[in-house]
């Protein structure tokens, strides 16, 4: 039986202290009732003897030391789950924002999740198609992987995230249902409305569940939001068998919320003022991606973070890089060239890509094309540096070819229209179109048998694959 406490010991901003508590545990949810009318909830964030420190998920301006009734629930934050959560929009705590009423279900799960035995993990294999050539071709997203996007203030990561939600899908001839869970943390109301409107207008809402936490919501809610989203994803994947892609933006807001609460608790700060347990907190989020032995579904993560001052050595991207399997880095120079998405190819990679592409997964030429595009673009950067010193007119004919290749690579391969989606076949054929701009002897990262089959064969070009897509659409009655 829950015990009700009648008085508070102190109130300091969003933090409440109660003495004489014996039944509480760290992480417990607490319910407050002011004047027996308004209800608020909070979470235990520190215990010293019989003194509890509670973070309130709301304003504390109308709470006083004598008029507040407090009840400890005896359990952590839980959310209701059912198949009907697909197509719904919630706030950061899982409360409906779409005026469709609460979720009715007998299934309740703790948002902190359950520990996963590493032995039960299955190595990620099959890919998820995002529709972006730079990602699918060069840093392929593998089902069960955690692949973050490192962005910066003012870069188009919100547009990129929204379009991934609109066009992401499983590869061809893959069994299983696909779903997306989208969580936004600390965003402005305009950004939240942009995401909500984009999903509704694109017709993808039927397989998307959204959690939107805005900048004026309580700080503690920002820490709960990714956990709520991942608990939803785990239910869809491991209970219902969906292959789920989770997009979390912005993990910098999550980390700054941790720092704010840590400072309020007078904890000793670490690098840049962040708490020493920032790594552990990020790991508890990122490590909830994966495939579990004996379960049909999977959870794949794309966490997005904005690097302060574009500094990739900042604690948030630095620690994220230790935990995740690669990164996609957005480039400010490409943004200035009006290239979307502005993905910086050379500092980006997917560490699980090499084991999950090729004849059994994508196409036999995929690895060779990716390696050669990386190498050729690297030669473009060298040619540009040389041209800045001696002038473009003094370059060799091959270096001039690389300059032309690099220009088309950025504009046509990395760059896509805001509503343009490409299949994996389109991406690989476009890669061959670009490589044909270079002499065959320069293509030293591709096996000679693959070159013999693809280099001179115009059947493997973007134009031919688009014509095939149109023909297949006509034959199918589309």
UniProtKB/TrEMBL annotation:
**Is Transport one of the keywords?**
yes
Show where the ATPase F1/V1/A1 complex alpha/beta subunit nucleotide-binding domain sits.
Answer: 131-350
**Which residues are in coiled coils?**
none
- Which InterPro entries does the record match to this protein? ATP-synt_VA_C (IPR055190), ATPase_F1/V1/A1_a/bsu_N (IPR004100), ATPase_F1/V1/A1_a/bsu_nucl-bd (IPR000194), P-loop_NTPase (IPR027417), V-ATPase_su_B/beta (IPR022879)
Q: Which UniProt keywords apply?
A: ATP synthesis, Hydrogen ion transport, Ion transport, Transport
Residues in ATPase F1/V1/A1 complex alpha/beta subunit N-terminal domain copies: 9-64
**Gene3D superfamilies referenced in this protein's UniProt entry, alphabetically:** 3.40.50.12240
GO molecular function terms listed in the Swiss-Prot or TrEMBL record: ATP binding; proton-transporting ATP synthase activity, rotational mechanism; proton-transporting ATPase activity, rotational mechanism
Family assignment?
A: Belongs to the ATPase alpha/beta chains family.
Instruction: Fetch the HAMAP family from UniProt.
Output: ATP_synth_B_arch
What the entry lists under NCBIfam families is as follows: PRK04196.1
**Name used for this protein in its record:** V-type ATP synthase beta chain
Highest lineage ranks of the organism? Bacteria, Bacillati, Bacillota, Bacilli, Lactobacillales
């Amino acid at each position: 039986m829950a015990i009700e406490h009648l008085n508070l010991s102190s109130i300091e901003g969003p933090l409440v202290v109660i003495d004489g508590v014996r039944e509480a545990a760290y992480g417990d949810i607490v319910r407050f009732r002011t004047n027996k009318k308004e209800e608020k909830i909070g979470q235990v964030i520190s215990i010293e003897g019989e003194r509890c420190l509670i973070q309130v998920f709301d304003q504390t301006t109308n709470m006083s030391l004598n008029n507040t009734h407090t009840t400890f629930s005896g359990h952590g934050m839980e959310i209701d789950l059912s198949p009907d959560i697909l197509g719904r929009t919630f706030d950061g705590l899982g409360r409906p924002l779409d005026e469709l009423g609460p979720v009715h279900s007998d299934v309740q799960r703790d948002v902190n999740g359950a520990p996963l035995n590493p032995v039960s993990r299955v190595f990620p294999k099959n890919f998820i198609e995002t529709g972006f050539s730079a990602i699918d071709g060069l840093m392929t997203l593998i089902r069960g992987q955690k692949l973050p996007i490192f962005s910066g203030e003012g870069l188009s990561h919100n547009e990129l995230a929204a379009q991934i939600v609109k066009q992401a899908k499983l590869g061809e001839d893959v069994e299983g249902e696909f779903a997306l869970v989208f969580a936004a943390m600390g965003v402005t109301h305009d950004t939240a409305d942009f995401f909500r409107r984009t999903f509704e207008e694109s017709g993808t809402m039927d397989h998307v569940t959204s959690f939107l936490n805005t900048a004026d919501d309580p700080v503690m809610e920002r820490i709960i939001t990714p956990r709520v989203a991942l608990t939803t994803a785990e239910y869809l994947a491991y209970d219902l068998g969906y292959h789920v892609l989770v997009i979390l933006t912005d993990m910098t807001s999550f980390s700054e919320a941790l720092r704010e609460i840590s400072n309020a608790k007078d904890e000793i700060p670490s690098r840049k003022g962040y708490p020493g347990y920032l790594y552990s907190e990020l790991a508890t989020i990122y490590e909830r991606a994966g495939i579990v032995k004996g379960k049909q579904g999977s959870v794949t993560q794309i966490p997005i973070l904005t690097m302060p001052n574009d500094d990739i050595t900042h604690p948030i991207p630095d620690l994220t890089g230790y935990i995740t399997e690669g990164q996609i880095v957005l480039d400010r120079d490409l943004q200035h060239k009006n290239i979307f998405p502005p993905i910086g190819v050379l500092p980006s990679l997917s560490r699980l890509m090499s084991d999950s592409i090729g004849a059994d997964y994508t196409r036999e030429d995929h690895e060779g094309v990716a390696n050669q595009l990386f190498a050729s673009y690297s030669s473009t950067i060298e040619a540009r540096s040389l041209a800045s010193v001696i002038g473009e007119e003094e370059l060799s004919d091959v270096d001039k070819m690389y300059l032309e290749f690099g220009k088309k690579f950025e504009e046509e391969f990395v760059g896509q229209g805001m509503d343009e989606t490409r299949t994996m076949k389109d991406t690989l054929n476009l890669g061959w179109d670009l490589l044909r701009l270079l002499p065959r002897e320069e293509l030293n990262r591709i096996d000679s048998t693959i070159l013999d089959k693809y280099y001179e064969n115009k059947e493997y070009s973007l134009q031919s694959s688009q014509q095939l897509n149109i023909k297949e659409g006509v034959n199918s009655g589309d």
